[in-house]
Amino acid sequence: MRSIQRKQASWRGPIIFGVVLVAVIVLVCAATYFAFRSSGGYTAVKLQPAREKFPDIQVDKLSPLRARAVNILRQQYDNPQPGPFYSQGERQDWCANFVSWVSRQAGAPLTNPHSGGWRIPGVRSLETYYRNAGKFRAANSGYQLQPGDAIMYDNASRHGEHVNFVLEYDNGKVTTIGGNEGGVINIQQSDLSRDGPIRGFGLLE
Questions:
Q1: Domain boundaries in the chain?
Q2: Strand, helix or coil at 176?
Q3: What would the pLDDT profile of 158-187 be if each residue is shown by its tens digit?
Q4: 65-102 per-position pLDDT tens digit
Q5: Element of type H or E holding 14
Q6: Class of domain 59-202
């Protein structure tokens, strides 16, 4: 009698496991089927948000230098390169390197206050350059930003310590383009009064 009970116990476990496994498989298949039907027969794909359109700037009304800078910015936005391209191969935060590279390509190269080279990798060194060159304006100076000027943000701003270019400006509302914004070249629209502390502006000319 005991041997019969042992045999029953020995095969009862695998049978229960098999029944549970089949039930789980059926439930998964049913859930997949109804999800497929409810989505119209297609798997839902989460689309990436569209990039901001480069603004239609009338470059013929700008100075030759500012027009060149805007055209270069448009080219780089349409055909962006990875960060090291603008940083002489260095893998580092590259917002200031992007400003340095574009300025040089436009015909207004910067001068690193420490090395003398054209590339300035940091926002604070960039501010030093603009001050030494007489091209720095305080955020509360009343200066009207123009395409190609740079905005330098303080570490406490919503951007962190950062710099980008002005594309359009109208009564405190600004459209900017910058490198290393989310790891790419990006266009943003913002209200300077809400961006947080701004270190100042760097004039292209």
A1: 1-46, 59-202
A2: strand
A3: 999 999 999 999 999 999 999 999 999 999
A4: 999 999 999 999 999 999 999 999 999 999 999 999 99
A5: helix 2-38
A6: alpha beta
